Amino acid sequence: MKRALHRLCLVAFFALTAHSARAAVAFTNIGASYSTSGASISPRFTQGYAFTSSVTGELSLVSIAMTLQNGTNSLFDLELRADNAGSLGSTLWTGSGNALPNGTTDQLVSIAGDGPDANLVSGQTYWLLASTSTSDLGWRFNTVGSTGQTYTHDSVGPSVNYFPNTTRGAFEIQVNVPEPSRFLLLGSGCLVVALRRRRVRQA
Questions:
Q1: Torsion sign, CA atoms 64, 35, 28, 40
Q2: Can you tell me the distance from the alpha carbon of 177 to that of 132, in angstroms, rounded to the nearest whole number?
Q3: CATH value at residue 171
Q4: Is residue 195 part of a domain?
């Protein structure tokens, strides 16, 4: 019976693990609208912005204000990178999306984020990069006064530049945060059952 109780607690533990996270915003500079101007994303230019995560969790969603300015192919790639002393570190996650037509009222494109290494830690700095190999896109600037370090790669040259305290493109990072209260509830339940069984045996 003791083994049966142990197995039951394990089953409950794994069941809660699969459904014990809540969505939380790790970073956002999304306002009511976006600037009419933005950073150029093209086969020539790759742009990126540093941000600091406000919570710890697994990457779940990346939203970015990206528009198609010229051309017909609106595909673009995103990359989440760790920070390495103020420059790009290792790659944690990659994703892709379709930019919306220029002039679209709602210019926010959302991309599901997942991956074994896509875990953000509260207080740590990361980089979100956008690139494309097709048309000319625009990463719309935020309108809430959000500034930070910027990365720009120009394939003509080529050259890599970092700029401090510049206006960031508009984007939002969401993560899944574990719910410790559910694990405490599970542990309490298993403890109560175990104590009751012990009392029955002693009786």
A1: positive
A2: 31
A3: 2.60.120
A4: no
Is 50 a domain residue? Answer: yes
Quickly count: other Cβ atoms within 10 Å of residue 142's Cβ: 22
Peptide bond into 43 cis (omega under 30): no
Q: What pLDDT digit, counting tens, does each position of 28-46 carry? A: 999 988 898 999 999 999 9
**Residue 39 belongs to what domain range?**
23-182
Determine the Cα–Cα distance for residues 75 and 77; give it in Å rounded to an integer: 7
126-166 pLDDT, tens digit per residue, is 999 999 998 899 999 999 999 999 999 999 988 999 999 99
Any idea how long the chain is?
203
> For residues 67-77, b (16+ Cβ closer than 10 Å) or e, as one string?
bbbeeeebebe
State if pTM tops 0.70. yes
Residue 29 backbone zone (phi > 0: left; psi -120 to 50: alpha; other: beta):
alpha
Is the residue at 71 inside a domain? yes
């190999």: which residue's tokens?
Answer: 133
> What's the total number of domains in the chain?
1
Interhelix angle 2-18/180-202, nearest 10 degrees: 170
